[in-house]
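note to self: the first set is below, dont mix up w the second
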Amino acid sequence: MDTFTNEKNMLVIERRNSYDHQMEIKFNNNNNNNNNNMKFNHNRMSSAEHKQKITSSINNNNGVCPGLLSQIAAEMKRRIIVNDRLKDGIKYTNVFDGKEAVDKIKEIIHTSDRAVALRVGRALESQRYFHDVNYENRLIDDLKEIYQFNDILNNKQQQSLFNQSSNSSVVTSMISDTITSSYSEEDIVLNEDDTTSLYSMPLAAVTGYHHHKSPNGIYTELLRCYSPTCNNLYPCYSYTCPKRERLRKRRNSLDTFEKRTTAHTYEREKEQPLWSHLVDDYVRQSVTNSELKRQETIFELIYTEESFLKDMDYLVEMWVQPLRQSNTIIPLSRREQFVEKVFSNILEIRAFSTKLSLALRARQQEHPIVSQIGDVMLELIDELEPFIKYGANQFEGKHVFERECYTNHRFATFVEETERDQLSRKLELNGYLTKPTTRLARYTLLLGSLYDRTPDNHPDKENIPLVMDAIKACLERVNLEAGMARNRFDLEKINRHLTFKNHKKDYVDLRLLDKERVIYKQAILRKSNSLDSTEYQVILLDHYLIVAKLKIVKAEEHYSVRKRPIPIELLGVHIPVIDVINPKRSSSTLLFHSDRSPRLSYRSSISKPPLTPLQSPIQKKAQLPTPSSSPSTPRNSVQYLESVFNPHTPSSSSSAHHRPPNTAITFYHQSRRAEESITLYAQTELNRNNWKNKIQKVKEIKEKKCPIFEVVHSVQKCEFFSNMNIYHMITFDDGSYYMLATENGLYLGLLGNQNVVPRKVLPLEKVFQVHVLEEFQLLLVLADGTLWQYPLDIIINGSTVNGNPLQHFGRKIQTGIPFFHVGECLNRTLICVPKASSTSTNIELYEPTMPKTEQRRKKRTVLDRLSLRTSLSLMNTQVVKYCTIYSPSEVWAMDTTKSLILLTTPLGMVAVNMNTKKPDVLLDKSDKTLEFVTKNETIKAQQIKPTIKYISLFQAPDGCYLMCYDRYAFYIDKKGRRAKHDFFIEWEGKPTAYALYYPHIIAFESRFIEIRSAIDGNLEQVIQGENILCLQNGQKSKVATIFGTMEDPQHSMYQLVFELKYVDTDHK
């Protein structure tokens, strides 16, 4: 009998059914109940004192009883940080190394003995809690060995089991003897390293499919003896006493080969012969030692290929064929699809292995000493394509297999029976399904060893590198295709079951099925640092961060989005600062609490997350003094049971409450949605920092992509201080000159030449708006509520004319106005000047006129204007009143069309027909698809909550109109009804200005510029900055140029005047 079935001291005491939690003693804490079997004395201790005593004992050990494998398993998974690693050229996801596993178990059970921690880890592994990625080795305390948790073990199920065990008052040792009565010795899972320490049983014998349960059992080596007279120096009479076991010298067999490998690998390699044992003695003696090693490597390549072929035959004969032939295991409607998903193209891989095995065996039969092998491999190296396809489908196949086991009882029974069959060689199906991809890596290892043992000037010295390069290239493609397939599978799974808790408020079209979509990271974060707190699935995509509540329904993951997804460009991360607050104050994030300890909570300013770089947490500690007590034999029943199930827990005399690690992380939106930030808690500080680093990496990737628009300096740098307000900017003379309206005056400059310093041409204060009418050589300036007109030529020429300052030539048009607008309507150039009263607004329309002598002149050049010829005659240019129109409410902005003047009012956009002078609401209120807008644009609604609106209207090439509000954007037709119903934009920020550069719509907010597609509304680019303001949107200008200003990123004391320039990607 082999080492895995040769132990007589292993007892079965665990059962995975309704008796799972009968290992916990149910004490009666009533003081009057003294009739228990153990005769506990409760006369001196109240019920509350009992509970407090035991709870304190559990808390001292972080809530983990070191003897219960269920708690160790849950805590181990909570602490271990999984990541992606390469092994033998294959990329594995969500893995950890053996050294990390042993380190974490050491911390959990509070021991310094790595051998003990290793044995506990192997006890968990024996219950299939985790496995070697190749299913070849058991848990090994080594950085090079990597392992994976079994995916089907749901975190929530484990956590529930852990919390159920942690919250118990005390733990029981009353276990029924009938549990083991119905099982034979063959059903017992044995482990020579864990003799008398682990009591376990075959899971499937009780519950069917073994993958659905968390580890459970008692590891007696970590407990104290049940006998009250037993102590460390004088163990009791029992041979299996834990104290006697610790005194007994344990055989140092942990690192022997048969203990390091799995049963399947051990049996396989035990059957493997050596080349030197099969050939005649004279053949073996005729070769050198180096050639002997080379022949052994060649023989291993041939033998392992035949073993691999047998494994493929096993999959086909024991799995594929029975599933296809049976009508009861899987329904006919999805049977073939299931086989295709799980086993993929396994028949093609078997065909390749058959061909390679025959070729290698034929070469071996030519002569006992194989001359070369590289040419055989080189002939078949181009036929590795099936491995790439199989590797790409492997992740989805495993998921489909596990889900079928979870939902189909008949299939689970079939799996259990097949895996227990002798032909399976003690290896589960997942172990066989990984063999095709691991076989590729094995080729490179064997061929590399063969290359090292091949002498120079040998044909294999040239052929083997070619074969290895081809296999490595194939492995790279396998990793790439597998990663893409997993990413695609996860995206399809999320897209299929993704919902929004508040669909109306938080819905975003995430376009999860787009080809460029990538999941960079996803993990579970908690609402608080407590293990039983609410869990959230946080998913970091290439364009959004999603926070969702995860729910398992029929083995399918359903995602309910709790917060509006945050774009990567606007995603902020903040590390809250931990603090110790008044113990008398309560806190919802209470981590540790007792009657004698201060309360610790996390205090952070989440409502207004700072924009400064991430801060480090302030480290503070709070120690709790405790009365001294003797660590000797317990004096009462409660102390006794504490010592049995928490032998490694420090006594109350040495316990001290320390502040828990700060694992909080806050995600927030860097805009008006900052109040919707959310603070969650990672498993560890390292895990939290990984989130921060990964988000930073994704943001950098996003920034490196070719932008649609770029910021180009338009005015000489470091010219205007950041505390000086710039309100408006215009260009004229075909974009050669520009004017800046600032609070200190009007500036003139040469566009495109940053070496020319702009000069102040009008020393007016609070210049809010400026406009140039080149046809009339007229300059309009709005300064401090007064609208002025100036001759354009005089302003351009110089500071004085005939000794008079330029300001002397200005004429007032109107005073007490907030803004003005110049546009074309009814084939006239109209200057619209609003004059507001308490309840309405009168808009006076002016029309500029030019002297008749000037009307006969052709368009003058800049040189003509600079020569000052006829400059004085231009002073006769008049601005005459055309008419007055009426608005029933306040007017915030205006625009013009061929026959309409559009007014932005509290009632929305009002259109005034210039033929009839009658105002009317632009949007059709009978259109129910526009109720989300029109319901807030009533007099009653504005009286309740008046808000200033920023509305713009742009005409698209197809004749529709794009209407932009400060919350959303949509299309309307000429009649004011909703058009293109599938198009809708909800801005990420609260924009104050818009620009249309078709097919792109641009929205300006104080901290970023949001660029979206005017075709589908998708977010395309975000340009971030501080104090951003749109100076000119380029609409209805001769030169459609978009200008803005922001704080200079390199010199914060200055501001940067820029042009938003389109990037021609076709020529870049």
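second set (the one i keep forgetting abt)
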Amino acid sequence: MASSAKKLQSKLFSSQSSNAIPGGGPSIDPGLTINIPKPPSKLPIAEQTLPKGKTATPPPPAAVAEPTTAEEDARTYRQKLVERLGADYEGVERHRLLQDSKKDRHWKRWGPYLSERQWATVREDYSGNGDAWAHFPHAHARSRAYRWGEDGLAGISDNHQRLCFALALWNGVDPILKERLFGVTGHEGNHGEDCKELYWYLDSTPTHSYMKYLYKYPQRRFPYEELVTENNQRSRDVTEFEIMDTNSFDEDRYWDVFVEYAKDEDDPNAISIRITAYNRGPDPATLHILPTLWFPNTWSWPLPTPPRPTLEQTSEGVITATHETLGTTNLYCTPSPPPFGPSNEEIEADGEDDSVIPELLFTENDTNFERLYGGQNTTPYVKDAFHDHIIPSHRPHLPGVTIETKVPNKKVVKGVNGVNGHANGDTSREVTIEVEEDGQITPTGPAHTRYFVNPERKGTKSAAHYTFNNVPGNGGVVVVRLKLTPSTPEADPCINDEELFDNVVDERRSEADEFYGRLIAGQVTEDLKAITRQALGGMLWTKQYYKFIQTEWLNGDPAQPPPPPERRWVRNREWKHLHIADILSMPDKWEYPFFAAWDTAFHCIPLAMVDPAFAKKQLDLLTREWYMKPDGQIPAYEWNFSDVNPPVHAWATFRIFKIERKVYGNEDLEFLERVFQKLLLNFTWWVNRKDSDGNNVFEGGFLGLDNIGAFNRSEPLPTGGTLRQADGTAWMAFFCLNMLNMALELAKHNPVYEDIASKFFEHFIFIADAMTFKGDHDNELSLWNEQDGMYFDAIQWGPGHSQQLPIRSLVGLIPLYATLTLEPSVINRFPGFKKRMEWFIDNRPEISQRNLANMRASGKGQRRLLALARPIWLAVNFLLIESLQRFHQYYGNELQVECPTGSGDYMDLGKVAEEIQHRIIHIFGRDMDGRRATNGGNPKLDRDPYFRDYVWFHEFFHGNDGRGLGASHQTGWSGLVAFHIMQSGISCRLPRTPRTPRSTSLHYFDEHIDTASEFGDDPLKSAYSVYSASDLNTLGDVSPDAL
């Protein structure tokens, strides 16, 4: 057995895969050198014995794979594909993406579409006061059926969330199973809601052909109460109390639980699932692993009641799921090998067959009304049945039993199995009860295994209960292998062959190595490659199925009591057209398990690097008629769809269009024009609703970034009057310039868009002028303060009565984003646009001459510049970097500024932009002492070999020391660091030692993609054929206009 384990150890999760790409660089998956032991051989599933009285029912037959020769079987799928495609080979994952786009294979049907938190969301809130945190707390989540979505630990579902799979765990001491992540609510946290768990999204390909997740599970009782109490007692001016501040991870008494998913090489519906748990503590410990398969509750809401889908045991270790539209899916829960020691030594057992056989459990995904409300359940088997079945202290007290709690030892009494057991009320059946030392009831004897779960082994929620006793400390390991597939063991031999099973997982991981090796090739440090891969993997993991149908949500469901009438007036009543049921990119699937329009725009930049089709779909959806209001407003987020976010949709749309054109050679004009037309409606909404006086100065509203102004800008001013927002107006100028950009691009193919480009050019000039210069009758209406050299908000009480708010904040920097350099070739290419621009300059001299950029003055290369003249948020810094790069295009190397301030060092704006990129990268990267700034000086995160390679992508970062703040898995816009590494990672050194950008700015409307390849026709590397030699390691030119 030990030799078998060592045989697999040499190839599984090693630093170099056996199928590594020649010349593609080493594996860049950090900290994944985990050794998967080979389990003992065992009987095929079909030969195992069912419980007495149960007849085996084989799953429905599936198509048997065509026979192949032994030589073909020995080759990997990648090798076969290389031979078949030759010079057209661009990697296995690129091939799958192409198949998915052509609808040859539905590779994205299954993915990580479960939320990390469905409880306490607006969708599940049916209260009269809109307090979602209180209406559906964490304490209800295990017992109460969800209406609008599902959550789970390391979970997956199909793209319509008809069937869900996730992991549950129990350490033997927790009061509940660990089925979902825990955190404090908005009321409980001293800084609002916050997840209090340790987990990482380690890897994912765009098609989710391979995914990896890590959860660190304490062996001590999970400190639910301590986390809530301590955070609730802390004031806002002190740090949050985290789980690592408790004793939960002292002495390393925790489990590292890795969950991997690997789809079959040519079948997107067949998924191998491997769960590997390591005991990092010093002593042996017991772990319960419960892979859980269930159907969302779709039957409790409508009338008449629809039929339920079914889960049932059809053979030993086989759960078969049958759904009207999804069809038949089988979960094969094979026996697991016994625990292995730290060096993969098999632990001796008493019996001949020491395999761990799972107990299959079944119940219904229905609310436990009895536990929550003291009511009567509609079924004897309810959502939290597995908690009751496994955890004695979780079980309800049986009626008619008197318990003596003050006993030193266990004591046996007799009781009646009544209302909490069999629904038929058979009082003749007695069960034996053991009273634990804490007075809790433990049903035992013949009846207890059927007490809470369905003895007929069918339902709508199921689990395979694996119990691993006395797993050795200091690295002892257990492995669970499962297969989710419509196929049969006859058609899929890896179901019963563990080595074939592991080969499937290993090959998918090798293909993920190939995909990221091609994307992040070149002289970038291994640490930065690993950060990029985790950032992009996290972006792909934070997809979620999001469903919200406003009319059903607001009116309530026919089969349920009507919601309180006052609920209609709490939120979102004017969004009657919303009908959402899509896979969306989430900011953070625990802290923000809902889409946010402006977050989505930033998510799509790094997503476009790996899957431009998905990125484009996100932006397209938000402008479709079932999202966008008829008046053109884009929904913000579910807490208030009417809130106002910065209008960055146009910027993201054009940015993604250019990324796909440069990196993948696809110019999707249909996408650009379709979204542009919808954004014309959105621009009109902004002008009509947010510039109420028609003077080109905008009120805006909340505008993201957690209300960075002095007042709550979502509410009326306490002083009266109207707030004229510097950032709101700057965002509109930014919107104008991006619409101008898009119009000029479209004008290359349709001259009608020249006129539209002229419209946005002039509108931008009017906004810039109104924002920067004083009106004729109001000495204070200007938002520009000449003395301070800064933009400020202003309050206006009426004509001639306004006052600036001289507060130095991010508000004053946002006007820098509204920047565009017009290349001479662009101006000359469009004679209509050029004529109109020159007319405006000649006939509106009072505006054009005093514009900060001075339209009459040309910059380097006769360029024209359109422009307005901190915690660390990657989103806003990304835009600042782009603006500095555009200013550098205009001014060239002649304009030098001191950077850093007070250093005496001067550099051009291009170098300043690169310096900021390097500083952002160094928030995540290791310094010379092995520390990461984002870890906040935590020695365990920086030094521990089981922590130091894993990176969190926080919502924002402390301005002084870079430590992570806010949501810990905000791989949405913080995933932008991957883009920075791709652009300037090759020149990234220590902070304050920036290197000159390796290329000058290319021209904005570059229509050519370099085709020369230093690799010639090598089919393993021909994916590089769309890159120039200088682009092999990055996205190429650092300027935003080059993309």
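remember for set 2: The CA atoms of residues 211 and 786 lie 54 Å apart.
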